[in-house]
Amino acid sequence: MTQPFLLVDRDGAVLTVRMNRPDSRNALTDLAQMDEFVALARQVRHDRSVKAMVLTGEGSAFCAGGNVKDMRDRGGIFAGTPCEVRDSYRDTIQRIPLALYELDVPIIAAVNGPAIGAGLDLTCMCDIRIASDKALFAESFVKVGIVPGDGGAWLLPRVIGLPRASLMAFTGDMIDAAKALEYGLVAEVVSAEQLLPHAQALARRIAANPSHALRLTKRLLREGQHMRLDSLLELSAAYQALAHHTSDHLEAVNAFLDKRAPSFTDR
Predict the structure, then answer these.
(1) Phi and psi for 139 in degrees, rounded to 5?
(2) Phi-psi region at 100: left, alpha or beta (left = phi > 0; alpha = psi -120 to 50)
(3) Hey, is 34 helix, strand or coil?
(4) pLDDT < 70 positions in the chain
(5) pLDDT of residue 31
(6) From the CB of residue 190, how many other CB atoms can be counted at a distance below 10 Å?
(7) Using the 8-state DSSP alphabet, how is residue 66 labeled?
(8) If we measure between CA atoms, which residue out of 63, 204, 55, 64 comes closest to residue 130?
(9) Can you give the pLDDT at residue 4?
(10) Cβ–Cβ < 8 Å for 177, 132
């Protein structure tokens, strides 16, 4: 039996998800991998007790992107006529940004090594990126004569701005963790040994907050990227009305006034 691509561990309200194909540097190569990402996002969306998720890679790489050998052989998701390849992208790799980027639970990318091509774009589908000092990043599609087919042309400029995204996409050049921090691509750089514990500790800090407030806040941040201010204010008012009528809001207020730690029930 083939081992799952995504290994999922749970610690309270925090999930740690490891891409587990270290022999291929966690390259995204087949439909089953995409199905696992979509299924995980669906499961987490319906489990309100999950409040934060950490995504990382097993082995030396975070994710090497697409399988270059499959590109050469026109196999896997790259097989078929131009129309078939177009449909393959829509039915495989493009399902991941739709699933992860739209997931209401905050996601931290713990970038343990190279995040190349689709691997870099995968980090941009997450909300926060923390890098090991061994991490490397490249929007490298142009180096192999293709374009970002997984939403990178939309994702990367929203993380680091259009000028720097253009520089990375047009050259395909690799940058190290220090340059990624300078670009604002990552929030922090830590040692390889500290990476996962640091990311998990951050996830626990996030998960200490009420589930409904976290999910509604992430949704506002997402919607705010393509809405007018007046429209976002209307949505914020509606979400705020929901939040004010939750038990956890009252518990948070009472705990603040009583100078004690809150006890949330996710209601």
Answers:
(1) -95, 75
(2) alpha
(3) helix
(4) 1
(5) 87
(6) 19
(7) B
(8) 55
(9) 94
(10) yes
Per-residue tokens: 64: 């090497």
Write down the domain spans for the chain: 6-207, 211-258
What local confidence, expressed as pLDDT, does residue 2 receive? 75
- Listed in sequence order, the residues at least 6 apart from 263 whose beta carbon sits closer than 8 Å to its beta carbon are 251, 255
CATH 3.90.226.10 fits 6-207, yes or no: yes
CB contact at 8 A, 76 and 67: yes
* Torsion angles phi and psi, residue 188, rounded to 5: -150, 155
In tens, the pLDDT along 107-147 reads 999 999 999 999 999 999 999 999 999 999 999 999 999 99
Residue 266, classed as helix, strand or coil, is coil
- Strand ranges (DSSP E) for 82-233? 107-111, 114-116, 128-132, 136-138, 174-176, 188-190
The answer to whether 130 touches 187, Cβ cutoff 8 Å, is yes
Helix (H), strand (E) at residue 151: none
* Structure tokens given for 214: 């976290």
Question: Quick one: pLDDT at residue 1?
Answer: 53
CATH architecture of the domain with range 211-258 = Orthogonal Bundle (1.10)
Q: How far apart are CA 107 and CA 105, in angstroms?
A: 6
Distance CA 24, CA 229 (A): 44
Q: CB of 22 within 8 A of CB of 113?
A: no
Q: Which helix (H) or strand (E) holds 142?
A: none
For tokens 């007790």, the residue is 49
Whole-number Å distance between alpha carbons of 267 and 208: 14
Residue 259 gets the label, from left (phi > 0), alpha (psi -120 to 50) or beta, of left
